[in-house]
């Protein structure tokens, strides 16, 4: 119902914009960034060939490997340990105001000549929070009781998520500020899109790999089945 309602809102809004909003034909841009798709890709290729851009892309493609497992797997492991999915979803609600306020606060620190300083400072704290998340997963079965989980456990999880959001947004806003700062104004849109796309890829591929590695790296014990390790799906089924 939720998805259906907002899907309908998006469709109605987009349709109204399409029919009611008219382009101002009198305003002609002083200079177009590119003339077509071919020119755009030629431009992107010439940008990415620059040594500084190539080095930067390699750095941001690998900078998030350290916390990929904590980001991608923690929620799934908490559910596996018995934390109800609906309770984890409810914990996301208090994060919404924080997610709105954080970029506004952090932007004051990324507006200077060296926006990546905030990125560097947030990284070790985000790595430490990965250990904190591992502790939360380990702690879950210890505090679980017949009625579920105590309130203080959810409080610790909520606080951990809030701290994680602070480090995450510090790095996110800093990298966006840096991309905006270094992009050539004449081709700003194309330049920024390239850097932001690489930045997004740098966050997505480590999470995908982390999820793929969960099963082979998980140590399992078979109860009542001598000689079986449960290392594969077929062995677990047996």
Spell out the blueprint of helices and strands.
Elements: H1 2-20, H2 37-48, H3 51-62, H4 68-80, H5 85-91, H6 95-110, H7 116-143, H8 151-182, H9 188-217, H10 233-237
Helix pairs in contact: 3-9, 4-7, 4-9, 6-8, 7-8, 8-9
GO molecular function: acetyl-CoA transmembrane transporter activity
Keywords: Membrane, Transmembrane, Transmembrane helix
Organism: Nicator chloris
Structure commentary:
The protein is mostly helical and 238 residues long. It has a domain at 47-204. The protein is 73% helix and 0% strand. It contains 10 helices and no strands. Helix 3 (51-62) runs parallel beside helix 9 and helix 6 packs parallel to helix 8. The longest helix has 32 residues, at 151-182. The two termini are 40 Å apart.
In brief:
With 238 residues, the chain is an all-alpha fold.
What structural keywords apply?
mainly alpha, 238 residues, single chain
DSSP helical segment count = 10
CA gyration radius, whole angstroms: 23 Å
Terminal-residue CA separation: 40 Å
- Give the biggest beta sheet: none
Average pLDDT figure: 87
Q: Share of helix among residues? A: over 70%
Q: What is the strand content?
A: under 5%
Overall geometry:
globular
> What's the number of extended β-strand segments?
0
What structural class do helix, strand and pairing data support?
A: mainly alpha
Low-pLDDT windows of residues: none
Note the run of SSEs as H and E.
Answer: HHHHHHHHHH
